[in-house]
């Protein structure tokens, strides 16, 4: 389940953000939180599993009807499973009026999710 970031989730969010290349330094992490805080068009969302643990984090930006996926950070033990597509499915459901796109680095992930999503929805129709 996706949960909007709150300050009381900062410790969990910092741990998850530290998996993102370039964000391992504490000063850089603080700058990242500040960057999200100064604009209402940017959001950090955490994925909470059924046991209440935060196991993934997503950074997005809303711009001109597009939801830009800046990054997805998933705990290493969950990276090889279906969690990535579940998170993107949830983003798509939360923001149905926005088109999900990725940054240059993240567009491959979005394209793979979109192909998977289209296959799953086509199979449901049959």
TrEMBL record:
Protein name: N-acetyltransferase
Species for this entry: Periweissella beninensis
């Amino acid at each position: 389940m996706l949960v909007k970031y709150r300050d009381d989730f900062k410790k969990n969010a910092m741990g998850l953000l530290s998996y993102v290349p370039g964000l391992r330094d504490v000063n850089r992490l603080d700058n990242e939180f500040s960057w999200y805080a100064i604009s209402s068009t940017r959001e950090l969302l955490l994925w909470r599993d059924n046991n209440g643990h935060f196991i993934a984090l997503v950074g997005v930006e809303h711009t001109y009807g597009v939801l830009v996926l800046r990054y997805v950070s998933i705990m290493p033990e969950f990276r090889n499973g279906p969690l990535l597509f579940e998170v993107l499915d949830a983003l798509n459901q939360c923001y149905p009026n926005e088109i999900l796109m990725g940054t240059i680095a993240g567009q491959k992930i979005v394209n793979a999710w979109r192909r998977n999503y289209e296959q799953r929805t086509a199979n449901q129709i049959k």
